[in-house]
Design a protein that fits this description.
- By secondary structure, this protein is mostly beta strands.
- Helix content is about 5%, strand content about 50%.
- It has helices at about 105-110, 155-165; strands at about 1-5, 10, 15-20, 30-35, 40-45, 50-55, 60-70, 75-85, 90-95, 100, 105, 115-120, 130-140, 150, 170-180, 185-195.
- Strand 13 (about 130-140) and strand 14 form a beta hairpin.
- The longest helix is centred in the C-terminal third of the chain and has 7 residues, at about 155-165.
- The protein is elongated and about 80 Å long.
C-alpha cells in the first residue's frame, strides 16, 4: 500500500493511494479502512485497478488502510499502512518570482500587477490553486499607504499609485483572504522588503 504523494493525507482534497500485492490480481484485492469513521476510501476509476482516493473526515489523526486478497471462500490479510491526516498548510505569497519574507527589487515590485498564491514547486500534491478573494496592503514610509483594501488578485489604480511611491528600505505587507482547495476560506499574511 503506497500513498502516491507522501505519507500524509490532507483534509478536503483527493489523496491518491496505490494498493497492490505481488502475484495477486487487482480484482482479488479486498481493501478497507480500519476505522471508516475517519475517512472515505473509493476506487479511482480514472487511473484503473489498484488506485484509490482517501478523503479524511478528521482534521488530525491516523488513518489505517488494510489490504487482503480473496483466497477461495476466505480472505487473507496482506498487511496495512497508516497515514497521518492533516489540515492543508497555508499557501505561500509571491510577487512575481519573489517569495514572501525575502527582498524584492523596487523595479520588479513596480512592474507587478498583484500577488499570487501557490504551494510552490516542492509541494508534492497536485491540486487546485487557492484563489485570492481580497487583500489588505500596508507599505511602510509611504504616507496614507495603510490598510489599503483591494478585491481580487489584481491591484487597482489606487493601490498601484501608492506602490509607485515606494522606495528601497520600505516594506510591503500583504494580508490576503484566499479560497482554499477544500472550499474553506483562510487569511494569510506576509511581508516583503523592498530593495534596490
Amino acid at each position: 500500500i503506497a500513498n502516491t504523494e507522501m505519507n500524509v493525507v490532507y483534509n478536503g482534497i483527493d489523496n491518491p493511494v496505490k494498493i497492490s500485492v505481488p502475484g495477486a490480481a487487482a480484482k482479488d484485492l479486498v481493501v478497507s479502512l480500519a476505522d471508516p469513521s475517519q475517512a472515505t476510501l473509493t476506487p479511482d476509476a480514472s487511473k484503473g485497478a489498484g488506485h484509490y482516493i482517501i478523503k479524511p473526515k478528521v482534521s488530525k489523526g491516523t488513518i489505517t488502510v488494510n489490504a487482503a486478497i480473496r483466497d477461495g471462500n476466505t480472505t487473507r490479510s496482506m498487511g496495512s499502512t497508516s497515514f497521518r491526516a492533516r489540515p492543508l498548510p497555508d499557501p505561500k505569497i509571491f510577487l512575481g518570482k519573489y517569495e514572501a519574507g525575502k527582498g524584492i527589487p523596487i523595479g520588479d515590485l513596480k512592474a507587478q500587477k498583484g500577488p499570487r498564491v501557490s504551494y510552490g514547486p516542492d509541494f508534492a500534491f497536485h491540486m487546485t490553486t487557492p484563489k485570492i478573494l481580497k487583500q489588505t496592503i500596508d507599505i511602510t514610509k509611504v504616507n496614507g499607504a495603510t490598510g489599503l483594501e483591494n478585491r481580487g488578485p489584481q491591484w487597482g489604480a489606487d493601490v498601484m499609485s501608492y506602490i509607485q511611491k515606494a522606495k528601497p528600505g520600505c516594506k510591503i505587507t500583504l494580508t490576503i483572504e484566499v479560497s482554499m482547495p477544500d472550499n474553506t476560506k483562510r487569511s494569510i499574511s506576509s511581508t516583503f522588503r523592498i530593495t534596490r
